[in-house]
């Protein structure tokens, strides 16, 4: 399928043969960032969150696109993810949001990777490392995950840092647990806790940041110095409630494609797939698609539809590891284009629809697409 690669204007150099792929619209990502910039105060920086391979979209490509569109720094979850970006030649500031082991500290310092100081204990464990390194202090204001909860612990941490001028506190941050919900009660409480903790700093660090996508899009005046823009950079609302309350329309970047590889007419009574769970109720056209649960097209999606010629066609039978079957309303050619997620003509299947079917959130679906699916990038 090198032909496809060229036609889609991909940045991928490897040829692929199976006509199943994820298409990433980098312009959509850039436009979402541009629209965000328009509503943020000029002094508020955008930190593009590209953890988990940029929510399945491809970390290096998304990071570069985000930086081109005006994001000035990047956030990832793990040391490995930070190194992947550095190895790709990205020089922007990178913050590791998760807990990094102290064994990574000397590499972080060498490669200008900022780590999260999430407890006094973590800071104390750095005491034998006396070269300059950068960290952001994480306050747990009510998420209950990582971060400093008690004022005394923060005071001890600040006293520890004060005696060590090689520790560079370039930021302080917290994370909200309910910013995507209509009820603001817990969010307001978290903001108040964070502000109280900020008062303990003699000198406020350069980059104070609190807001994930949900908080970024719902409150305009509480962003401090930077926002951590994740899910909505990819064009996805953080929650159904947020979807109804967006300050600008989001453009989704990801679509999922395949082609019909086999078409047949089956007789009434024919069964389809493992377990013979589907029986044709009349003579029917059945097509086979080369995508299955090993790609992230999960078995629980068996009641879903796919788009062919701009129309919804139902999946029939169980989704296999590498293939699945659909029922057609007419014969189609081998090679007919199929959209599993995204737009085709006037019809669209959105990731939220899958999220409902799977009783999960779009975040999880993005991260579930396997490496077997090539990501193609349109410019
Ligand atoms: C993942 C993450 C974000 C981004 O959240 P979105 O809801 O995707 O915008 C921000 N901050 C932290 C600490 C995170 O772990």
Question: Please, could you describe this protein's structure?
Answer:
This protein starts with a helix and ends with a strand. The chain is of the alpha/beta class and 379 residues long. Helix 5 links the parallel strand 3 and strand 4. Helix 12 crosses helix 13. It folds into two domains: 40-243, TIM Barrel; 254-378, Beta Barrel (Lyase, Ornithine Decarboxylase, Chain A, domain 1), CATH 2.40.37.10. Helices cover 28% and strands 26% of the residues. The protein is elongated. The strands form three sheets. Strands 1, 10, 11, 14, 15, 16, 17, 18, 19 and 20 form a ten-stranded mixed beta sheet that branches. It is built from 13 helices and 20 strands. It binds pyridoxal-5'-phosphate. Pyridoxal-5'-phosphate is lined by residues 49, 51, 97, 175, 212-214, 228-231, 238.
CATH architecture of the largest domain: Alpha-Beta Barrel
Number of domains: 2
Low-confidence spans? 1-12
CATH class of the largest domain: Alpha Beta
Radius of gyration: 24 Å
Residue share in β-strands: 25-35%
State the CATH topology of the largest domain.
TIM Barrel
Active site: 51 (proton acceptor), 274 (proton acceptor)
Pathway: Amino-acid biosynthesis; D-alanine biosynthesis; D-alanine from L-alanine: step 1/1
InterPro entries: Ala_racemase, Ala_racemase/Decarboxylase_C, Ala_racemase_C, Ala_racemase_N, Ala_racemase_pyridoxalP-BS, PLP-binding_barrel
Pfam families: Ala_racemase_C, Ala_racemase_N
């Amino acid at each position: 399928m090198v032909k496809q690669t060229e036609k889609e204007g991909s940045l991928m150099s490897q040829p692929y043969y199976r006509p199943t792929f994820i298409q990433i619209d980098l312009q959509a990502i850039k436009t979402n960032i541009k629209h965000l910039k328009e509503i943020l105060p000029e002094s508020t920086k955008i930190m593009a969150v590209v953890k988990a391979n940029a929510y399945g979209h491809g970390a290096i490509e998304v990071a570069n696109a985000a930086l081109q569109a005006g994001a000035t720094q990047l956030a990832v979850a793990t040391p490995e993810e930070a190194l992947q970006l550095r190895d790709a030649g990205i020089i922007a500031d990178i913050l590791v949001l998760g807990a990094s082991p102290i064994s990574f500290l000397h590499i972080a310092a060498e490669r200008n990777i900022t780590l999260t100081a999430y407890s006094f204990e973590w800071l104390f464990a750095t005491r034998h490392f006396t070269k300059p390194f950068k960290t952001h202090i994480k306050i747990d204001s009510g998420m209950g995950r990582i971060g400093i909860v008690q004022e005394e612990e923060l005071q001890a941490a600040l006293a520890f840092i004060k005696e060590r001028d090689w520790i560079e506190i370039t930021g302080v941050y917290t994370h909200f647990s309910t910013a995507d919900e209509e009820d603001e009660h817990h969010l307001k409480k978290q903001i108040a806790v964070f502000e109280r903790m900020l008062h303990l700093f003699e000198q406020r660090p350069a980059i104070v940041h609190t807001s994930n996508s949900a908080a970024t899009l719902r409150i305009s005046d509480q962003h401090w110095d930077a926002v951590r823009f994740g899910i909505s950079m990819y064009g996805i609302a953080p929650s159904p409630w947020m979807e109804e309350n967006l300050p600008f329309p989001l453009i989704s970047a990801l679509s999922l494609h395949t082609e019909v590889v086999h078409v047949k007419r089956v007789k009434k009574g024919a069964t389809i797939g493992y377990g013979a769970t589907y029986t044709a109720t009349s003579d029917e056209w059945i097509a086979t698609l080369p995508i299955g649960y090993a790609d992230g097209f999960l078995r629980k999606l068996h009641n879903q539809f796919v788009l062919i010629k701009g129309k919804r066609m139902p999946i029939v039978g169980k989704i296999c590891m590498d293939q699945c079957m659909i029922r057609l309303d007419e014969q189609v050619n081998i090679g007919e284009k199929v959209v599993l997620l995204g737009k085709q003509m006037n019809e669209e299947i959105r990731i939220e629809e899958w999220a409902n079917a799977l009783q999960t959130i779009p975040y999880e679906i993005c991260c579930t697409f396997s490496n077997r699916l090539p990501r193609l990038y349109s410019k």
